[in-house]
């Protein structure tokens, strides 16, 4: 075994190398997206040999799948954490889901981009990572279904309502992380107001007299 390989095994034992490679990949995705991302480039920045990433990932797509799965788990954890603290009617709980979705995208833009990136031509997306198959989308459906059953939300079906709401929060999230709103110079207060205003505008026809400040 070469000295370099020995040093790598010492520095990255018990899965540390895999974690470090994902961490570096996320840094590079935030800087330049996924198009130019390569395992060789990730290895170089991580300070390991060009062959080291192949111990954990067969190719770039395998690494991106791992990034996406990590992102899905983080988003679901964040949404569930907020729902555990949420009080109020079922509509309020669903609005909590919308806020958590936007906040996750802002806090984890690289994860978010990979989770919803189009698969490379000829490389199918794993079934569990298709957006409509992910746990957080099913969570949205569950919350909306409860609202729909109680007549709080009206629409063709919980699924159609979920698609409309998802399109709204997803589009807003992308505008924020891509810096298209106010030249990317939104302060925290303005952003918070816009998030709540967006959700209230969407749900105003269903919620009655309450306003944006009532969102938990």
Note the main attributes of this structure:
216 residues; mainly alpha
| Fraction of residues in β-strands | under 5%
Spell the H/E element sequence.
Answer: HHHHHHHHH
Mass-distribution shape: elongated
Question: Which regions have little confidence, pLDDT < 50, spanning 5+ residues?
Answer: 208-212
Radius of gyration over all CA atoms, rounded: 20 Å
Distance between the termini: 57 Å
How would you characterize the largest beta sheet? none
Q: Overall mean pLDDT score?
A: 81
Treating each run of at least 4 consecutive H or I residues as one helix, how many helices?
9
Strands, count:
0
Helices and strands in order:
Elements: H1 3-11, H2 16-32, H3 39-46, H4 60-85, H5 90-107, H6 109-115, H7 135-149, H8 158-177, H9 188-207
Structure description:
The structure is a single chain. By secondary structure, the protein is mainly alpha-helical. Helices cover 65% and strands 0% of the residues. It is built from nine helices and no strands. The chain is elongated. The relative contact order is 0.10.
Short synopsis of the structure:
With 216 residues, this protein is mostly helical.
């Amino acid at each position: 075994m070469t000295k370099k390989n020995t040093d790598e095994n010492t520095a990255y034992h018990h899965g540390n190398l895999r974690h470090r490679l994902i961490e570096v990949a996320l840094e590079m995705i935030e800087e330049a997206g996924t198009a130019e991302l390569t395992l060789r480039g990730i290895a170089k920045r991580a300070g390991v040999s060009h062959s080291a990433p192949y111990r954990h990932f067969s190719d770039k797509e395998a690494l991106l799948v791992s990034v996406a799965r990590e992102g899905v788990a983080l988003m679901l954890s964040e949404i569930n954490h907020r729902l555990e603290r949420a009080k109020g009617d079922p509509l309020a709980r669903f609005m909590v889901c919308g806020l958590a979705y936007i906040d996750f995208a802002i806090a984890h833009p690289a994860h978010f981009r990979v989770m919803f990136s189009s698969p490379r031509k000829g490389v199918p997306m794993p079934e569990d990572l298709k957006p409509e198959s992910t746990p957080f989308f099913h969570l949205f459906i569950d919350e909306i279904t409860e609202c729909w059953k109680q007549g709080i939300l009206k629409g063709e079906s919980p699924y159609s309502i979920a698609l409309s709401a998802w399109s709204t929060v997803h589009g807003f999230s992308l505008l924020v992380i891509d810096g298209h709103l106010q030249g990317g110079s939104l302060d925290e207060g303005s952003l918070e107001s816009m998030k709540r205003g967006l959700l209230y505008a969407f749900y105003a026809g269903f919620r009655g007299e309450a306003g944006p400040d009532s969102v938990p």
